[in-house]
Every structure is written in structure tokens, then in C-alpha cells.
Amino acid sequence: MDLFSLQNKTAIVTGALGLIGKKHCEALANAGANVVIADINGEAAIAFAAQFGNNHLGIALNVTDKASIEKVRAAVIEKYGTIDVLVNNAAINDMFENPAMAKELSAFENYPLEAFQQSIDVNITGVFLCAQVLGSVMAQQGSGSIINIASTYGIVGPDQSIYRDECGEQTFYKSAAYPVTKGAVINFTRFLASYWGHKGVRVNTLSPGGVENNQNEFFIQNYAAKTPLGRMAKANDYQGALVFLASEASAYMTGANLVVDGGWTAI
């Protein structure tokens, strides 16, 4: 079990206050890491970090702002001296302020360009910048693990039928933004793995499936029906995979996409 230990390692999680972001932090802390809980909401990040104890750091981070990432880097190096693990978890998934307009606005023909651009800024550029600024520390020290969080929708196209309700009414369309950006993250992983491999930096993707989170019952049932394990994920279903990728248990693994989706992409 020592292979999975992250004792005395420093791990940064971006978008740390999201549904699975919190579980990523919990898993890394339980494995022994000093966890940097980085989120756009700095005050909430500080409060969440306090739950884990003094060895952990909560800090504000805007992944689209290079200066913000540089501030995080400086704070982490000052406190811990190293950066050993980076979990690029921050991302935007489509949300529409007016639910009544969700179907119309999410349709490809009407999808707002500004929404598409915002997803690119956070989901792709944010990963690029964090890897560049924070990953460079790993390259200089000759070791580290970068884990880019993608999605099953970075591998396969969305099944729009799962967004139909009991009456067959399409309530929403999965837009192009999330699949396009998550597909880019997967290939960015391959680039970075080949670029920094000789520096001792491993770069892998973790592609999770959908997480149950108070969605409409029809959606939960539709999703489960397409999944060999017959259910949506629980928020903590990715903790083991994350620790595996962060630790020496995956020492000979880089450039890979670890898919944890209950079999969604298998059929």
C-alpha cells in the first residue's frame, strides 16, 4: 500500500469546490498529501481547507488569469517548497439562467458563441495555463504527476435522447462546448506527456462518467439504462483512480486516459 502513499507530497486541485473537486481533495488528503484547495471562490476555499487541518491551504485561483496562477505558485512554493501533483479539475458545464429557455439555447443552431468561448477559456486555456505555470515547477525538480480531468464526452458524442423526459419531450441538448473542450484536454495530455516525459513529469487524463446530483428522475433512469453497471456515479467513485494516478502506483503510466464510467463508453 506504500505505492499509493502521498505522504509529504504537495497536491494542487483546481476547481476544488465542485461536486467531485471536494472528493478529489478528500482523497488526496487521506493519502497523506498536503492539499492546495484552489478555487475561484477564495474565501470558501480557505474555509474548506480548514476542515482538513493546518497542513492544507485554501486559496483563490482564476485559471484563465496567468497572474492569478503565478500567485498560487508563489504561495505554494513558499509554504511547501515543491509541487508534486496537479489536478486540473476546473471546468464549465452548461448552465442556463432561465430553465424555460434551456432547450432553445442549448440547441446547436442557437448556442451562444460567448458560451462556447467561455468554455474554451476555462476548460482548455485554463488547463494549458495551469500546466504551464505549475507544471514547470515539476519539470524543474524532475518529478511530478499532472492529472487532467476530462469526461466520457471527450471520447464519445453525447446521446441527446437521455435528456428526453417521460413524455419524450426534449428538455435540453448537450451542447458542443463540453465535448469539444474535453476532447481537447485528452489530446493535450498526450502532448504534455511526450513533451515532459524526459523531465520525469507524468501526465494522464481521468475521464469520469456522469455523477448523480439531484437531477430529474427521468434523466437518472435514462443514464443508468445506458450504463452496464446500471447507475450513475457517486461523487466519491473517482477517489481511488485519482490517488492511483497521483501516486507511485502508476509510476510507469503517462499519456493515458483512465476511463471510469461504469461502462458507458464500452457499448
CATH superfamily heading: NAD(P)-binding Rossmann-like Domain
Count of individual beta strands: 7
Rounded Rg: 18 Å
Query: On the 0-100 scale, what is the average pLDDT?
Result: 96
* Proportion of strand residues: 5-15%
State the end-to-end distance: 33 Å
User: How many distinct domains?
Assistant: 1
Keywords:
267 residues, alpha/beta, Rossmann fold, seven-stranded parallel beta sheet, 8 helices, 7 strands, 39% helix
Protein model, in words:
This protein has 267 residues and is α/β, with parallel strands linked by helices. The protein has a single domain (2-266), classed as NAD(P)-binding Rossmann-like Domain (Rossmann fold, 3-Layer(aba) Sandwich). Helix content is 39%, strand content 14%. The chain contains eight helices and seven strands. The chain has helices at 21-30, 42-50, 66-80, 102-106, 113-141, 177-196, 217-225, 239-246; strands spanning 10-14, 34-39, 57-60, 85-88, 144-149, 201-208, 257-260. The protein has a seven-stranded parallel beta sheet, sandwiched between helices. Helix 1 crosses helix 8 (239-246) and helix 3 packs parallel to helix 5 (113-141). The longest helix is centred in the middle third of the chain and has 29 residues, at 113-141. It starts with 9 loop residues before the first strand and ends in a 7-residue tail after the last strand.
